[in-house]
Design goal:
Layout (H helix, E strand, L loop, with lengths): L1 H18 L28 E4 L4 E4 L4 E6 L2 E5 L17 E3 L8 H7 L33 H4 L14
């Protein structure tokens, strides 16, 4: 009888555990609303931007710039006065999704050195969903002259007709 009671208790316990709802936690990180207006479009999640022209980082979540000053990293809500004329909208930005990217500063500096002096011709307004760069076809800054003169690379469907 004692064995039967224990067996029944185990059976009831097993059934109640199986019928209890499973709990799961899902965490999706999207920080579209917290990205700065000057950030590039098209990214659902960004931890940091590296700004190679001024050798600085921007922490999106904390809304802080990170830059070197006297060989020490400074965390600030604004850039130092030496960068007061830097245009965040036109400067090149590299999305970096790794913790504390400034620890890899030398790698980033070397890899993105070619973007020193870079200025984007297009104002990157996050609310502007049209790509204005190609709206005015007569604007030669946005046309590929070599392609238009037939000096493009690759084969077109008309190349076989010649």
């Amino acid at each position: 009888m004692k064995k039967l009671v224990i067996l029944a208790a185990l059976a009831i316990g097993s059934i109640s555990m199986m019928s209890s709802p499973a709990e799961a936690q899902v965490n999706i990180s999207v920080n579209i609303g917290s990205q700065p207006d000057w950030g590039p479009r098209g990214y659902n999640y960004v931890e940091y931007y590296y700004l190679p022209e001024i050798e600085s980082y921007y922490n999106v979540r904390e809304r802080q710039f990170i830059y070197l000053n006297n060989e020490r990293w400074v965390f600030s809500e604004s850039l130092p006065s030496r960068y007061r004329n830097y245009d965040l909208y036109r400067g090149y930005k590299v999305v970096v999704n790794q913790p504390r990217p400034y620890l890899h500063y030398k790698e980033h500096k070397f890899k993105y050195k070619k973007y020193e002096g870079y200025h984007d011709e297009h104002y990157n307004n996050r609310e502007d969903h049209d790509d204005d760069r190609y709206e005015n076809n007569s604007d030669k800054r946005y046309r590929n002259a070599d392609y238009e003169k037939g000096k493009h690379h690759g084969k077109s469907k008309h190349d076989d007709d010649k």
